[in-house]
Amino acid sequence: MRILLVEDEARLASALKQLLKENQYAVDTVHDGDSGYDLALTDSYDIVILDIMLPKMSGIDILRGMRENGVQTPVLLLTAKDTVEDRVTGLDAGADDYLVKPFDNKELLARVRALSRRTGQFSGSDAIEAGPFRLDFSTRTVTRNGEALALTAKEFQLLELFMRNQNKVLSKEIILDRVWGPDADVIGNAVENYVHFLRKKIDESGKPSYIATVRGVGYLFQPDASEAR
């Protein structure tokens, strides 16, 4: 299960990430609202844990933006405020749960488990499609024109990122951050290697690649380019 943690207090964010990892969750952590909003809209998570008071963009604004863009991922709000008005504001913005700081780790984990049981309700996030490709999260399968493609976990994540950002140039730095995580210790040409692996599995023989290299910048995924193939 993938969790996005948006928390600007570095020590708390580090402690929560370690706690969640120890309980078998995969966690991406960012420390400002703009980065959190960007990830929440362009990547796929099972749960978002979102602090309200954040630099650059508030947690409430992130939450409203998510819901306005059709992202129905369950959201647990964290806040130091405990007034009725604050709770109502958060819930009206689309939050699924609300936890006041300071909190007990056991309570946080219990609320995460409760939200995780709801994820199957959001059919809008079960699958995404781009051109001939369909990526199904419930079965972890990928098809091209109905034909199953055998991808590794990292290739699956990479294709998902491309599909969510089709016809946009993605830099190698962005790909590293989204697929391997901002804290990952990646050595060498990981992005180039995995793009190469992915191309071999998704491209059609004798036709141009769906993933174009933009020299000096990154990569461009064009799923509808098949019409010009």
Would you write up a description of this structure?
The protein is α/β, with parallel strands linked by helices and 229 residues long. The chain has two domains: 2-119, Rossmann fold; 127-221, Winged helix-like DNA-binding domain superfamily/Winged helix DNA-binding domain (Arc Repressor Mutant, subunit A). Helices cover 39% and strands 22% of the residues. It has eight helices and twelve strands. A five-stranded parallel sheet has the order 2-1-3-4-5, with helices on both faces. A four-stranded antiparallel sheet has the order 6-7-8-9, with helices on one face. A hairpin with a 2-residue loop joins strand 8 (141-144) and strand 9 (147-149). The longest helix is centred in the N-terminal third of the chain and has 13 residues, at 10-22. The protein is elongated. The model is unreliable at 120-124 (pLDDT under 50).
Helix content: 25-40%
Q: What is the CATH fold-level name of the largest domain?
A: Rossmann fold
Determine the mean pLDDT: 85
> Can you summarize the main beta sheet?
5 strands, parallel
Instruction: Please provide the count of β strands.
Output: 12
Poorly predicted runs: 120-124
Distance from N terminus to C terminus (CA atoms, Å) equals 38 Å
CATH architect. name of the largest domain: 3-Layer(aba) Sandwich
Q: What fraction of residues sit in β-strands? A: 15-25%
Protein name: DNA-binding response regulator
Pfam families: Response_reg (PF00072), Trans_reg_C (PF00486)
Keywords: DNA-binding, Phosphoprotein, Transcription, Transcription regulation, Two-component regulatory system
GO molecular function: phosphorelay response regulator activity; transcription cis-regulatory region binding
